[in-house]
Amino acid sequence: MSAEAAAARVPGRGRRLLLAAVVLFLGGSGLVYEYCISTLATHLLGNSVEQFSLIIALMLFAMGLAGLAQRALKDSERVAELFVLVETLLGLLGGASAVGLYLAFGWLDHFRLVLYGTALAIGFLIGLEIPLLLRLNQAWRAELRDNVGDVLSLDYIGALLGALVWAFVLLPLFPLDRISLMLGLLNLAAAAVTLVAFWAWLPRKGLVVGALVFSGCALGVLTAQAPTWVDAARQNLYADPIRHHVQSPYQDIVVTGHGARFSLYLNGHLQFDSEDEFIYHEMLVHPAVLALGRAPARVLVLGGGDGLAVREVLRWPGVERVLLVDLDPAVTTLARTYAPLVRLTEGALVDARVVTWAAAGVTPGETTPVVKQGERPRDALRGRAERVADVALMHLDADAFVRDLTGPWDVVIADFPDPSTPDLAKLFSVEFYAQLRRRMAPDGVLAVQASSPYANRRAFWAVADTLAAAGFATRALHAHVPTFGEWGWHLARADHAPDPTGAPPFPTRYLDAEVLAAAQVFPRPMRRPQGPAAVSTRLDPTVMRAYLAGEPLEGLTPFPGSAHR
Hints:
Elements: H1 3-8, H2 13-45, H3 48-69, H4 79-107, H5 111-137, H6 144-173, H7 176-197, H8 205-236, E1 242-247, E2 252-258, E3 261-266, E4 269-273, H9 277-292, E5 298-303, H10 308-313, E6 321-325, H11 329-337, H12 339-344, E7 353-355, E8 368-373, H13 377-381, E9 385-394, H14 398-403, E10 409-415, H15 422-425, H16 430-438, E11 440-449, H17 457-469, E12 473-481, E13 485-493, H18 513-519, H19 542-549
Helix pairs in contact: 2-3, 2-4, 2-5, 2-6, 2-7, 3-5, 4-5, 4-7, 4-8, 5-6, 7-8, 17-19
């Protein structure tokens, strides 16, 4: 090609500015794709550190392979055409990624192969963008330092903007499938812009236009059909019909059930079954109050946004203030608005005002009294009600909240999920428990749900060791919850070992004096294992490693593998 012909094809200033905006967008979109796939994998498989590490590493690896692969394109006439095709394919594959991965999770056995294969494919396409842009930009920025400076600076600035938009706009406002679809459509728009800008450079215009039109139509159909397909895949994951579904920025919330019975799942993990949740929550709350030995005036509930622990707390006379701290407002909203759960909690949160605080500086907020109708026939007929307690809710990370919490608290209920990830393991650390101890009354009692002393025996007793290292004396409890199996809790107080005896001064469905006494006796398969104390810290999350390892079966197994209790 002559120099005059090459110069004639160089885009003008307006088109170059438009292409600069495209480069800026591509820098942000690539990062958002990584975050979107990693977040979806976390919701489906758990362990955010593992999923983010693996997926971003795989995508970066694929980007490196793409940088090598683009060298095979020696015909400079085809660079613009390949760039538009890459953007088109990236828009199609990236836009469909979240929906496709969810469908694969719902219907396929080997989901991880699809997940990591998708990450590699999208990473490879993202990795082709910058080398091809550098080669295109060379037409009017022949100096290497100018070329690299133009493209890389815009790409990195776009990455920053993409991260900010992801964290503060996309994730809080949209579900992951809509985010990927919107991003895919924007990628197709970027492909259309480059198609116009480099129209004169494209040797096979019909191929490029056809690919772009087909991809746009495919994403349009997917956008229209995605809700139906996703609902079908979600239902395939659960044995019982799905009654209610909410996708929050933090987790996937599903309620399933038949008749009057229902179950709550967070990211596919069972939180409670209405048939037997009273066993878990009575064992979580009432032994702690009995060990206190007096009426608790101030009770702090960490986690437990479903309101069931608060329901049990409010049964105790003398309770003046209950503060419930939960990370996800969608869960407490469900507990206040979803009629079956409202009935199950006996309206524990219905009359409570939700207050959302920033984690940087937390102070007690405005509360609303919870009242109940009079129990005597005369009071009921007159509509007389009595004040039970004040309940306030805060939605933020419990760890961040405790750092700024003022006390003292008579009873603290730590109803956190099992320590399966670093984010959760910090809530079972010696540092966290030490902060709690400083904010409790001198004779205050802490109750901690600690997973199964049978299936996760080492993790269960690691919680006791960690509480002891934080200055608590402890008492272990266990009970059989049919939907969970054997389950355990720890009571802790700073002045002396907790001694829960007797029974609550009101009717209960499970706990009585005999049951409480039996709950403190551990058979040999659930007793503390031999060995030194296992203290979990922020730097060394021992409890997480013990939980993930589980308890291997003793003796020979018929098949090799990692069989656990």
